[in-house]
Amino acid sequence: MNDRLQDIIDTFRSVDEELRLELLLDYSRRLPALPDRLRAQRDAGLNRVPECMTPVFLFVERDGADSDHVRLFIDVADEAPTVRGMLGIIVAAYDGARAGEIGDLPADLVNRLGLGGAIRMNRLVGLSAILQRIRNEAVAAVTA
Amino acid sequence: MTSHDYATDVLVSTEWVDEHRGDTDTIRIVESDEDVLLYATGHVPEAVKIDWINDLQDQTVRDYIDQQRFAELCGRHGIDHDTMVVFYGDQNNWWACYAFWVFKLHGHEKCRIMDGGRGKWRAEGRAMSTETPRYAPREYVAQPADPAIRAFRQDVAGHIRQAAPLLDVRSPGEYTGELLHMPDYPQEGALRGGHIPGAVNVPWATAVNDDGTFRSREELTQIYQVQQGLDPADDVIAYCRIGERSSHTWFVLKYLLGFEHVRNYDGSWTEWGNLVGAPIEQGAPKPAAV
Q: CA angle, corner B211, sides to B113 and B23, nearest 5?
């Protein structure tokens, strides 16, 4: 896992569960809006993550020709703040990162953040599927 | 217009809640969601939050909170024995019905569901706030749990022997045994796929319209009584995976259709599917009994 994610995990781990949920809500609010150029694709139903009941749209792009870095653009409904928060953390940690770093994104992120008690499995609808998709698409983006 | 002229003793409209939400001396509005953060993003201004895991369950005994903790929960939200508690939430009031069921389990008399839930309230552009209201604590004297609305595994075994009605409210794929969990949801720990022998399958969301309100009494009668052959005098046990979806169906049968004896088997498939010695069936539903 990269340093940015480690910093986020350390911050979560330094506070109690109530504050962790507050932090998660902050990340949910700070998830960047989709750039204008990608909105049309979303509105056309493209790039939707099919495993997820909550509408989640994922765009992974190579950060310039020959770069091994990628940009992450993710759109999640406002009414799914827990999923938004988790993806907000991933964008904060990995947007602009090297694709190889994203490959190391831990599958047990919820537990590492100390949120395993407050967020039961069925609240994170399809999250593991989204993580897997981000890993795969990041690698694919830089090898295309 | 989806407001109903039936079940007015348990269903209130968003409009009614908007008119009465200021009556905080006599009414407490409660939001119960699947998403633990949703309330904090904005809610009915006067509403408090009750969380299905953190407030209503006691993980140390795999049970609901006991009488004393229920009294404490109500007391700290300024709810007393006479308070009318109005529940609403996300996912077509799925979790609101679950909270309603737990309040009924503890004998709270005046409980209501806001028809259409959070989705309808938002869609209508009604007031929302991120401020958490605080109410003066009240003394709540809790009643012993009401066993009449809760089924245990031995009750289910008895139903199998007597061929009494069992209603499986999970998705068709979970019912047949093809899936061990809800479509799109992670696995939640059942070793076997299938259903309780003799159970019929009516997915819980069959009971709601696109806007999250409950279907009309005529439509519900058609679904549960005509198509499935259930009778309001029947002793019905409803179940799902962990007893949350089936609390929604329990509400529909008991309060919207007036079934006298309907119980929620909250152990549900996570218990029955894992229980040593418990028989199951797999495959398509059998034709409804006539």
A: 35
Q: Where are the beta strands (DSSP E) in B24-78?
A: 27-31, 48-49, 57-58, 63-64
The C-alpha atoms of residue B263 and residue B218 are separated, in whole angstroms, by 22
Q: What are phi and psi of A91, to 5 degrees?
A: -65, -45
CB within 8 Å: A79 and B188 = no
Contact B37 A81 (CB under 8 A): yes
**Cross-chain Cβ contact A122/B188 below 8 Å:** yes
A42-77 pLDDT tens trace:
999 899 987 777 889 999 999 998 999 999 999 999
Q: Could you say which of B74, B97, B111, B240 is catalytic?
A: B240
| Residue (of B34, B27, B24) closest to B54 by Cα position | B34
Q: Which residues of A touch B (CB under 8 A)?
A: 21, 24-25, 28, 51-53, 78-83, 85, 118-126, 128
Q: Which amino acid type is present at position B68? A: Q
What's the gap between Cα B42 and its chain centre?
Answer: 23
pTM equals 0.90
Handedness of CA B119, B121, B122, B128 (dihedral sign): negative
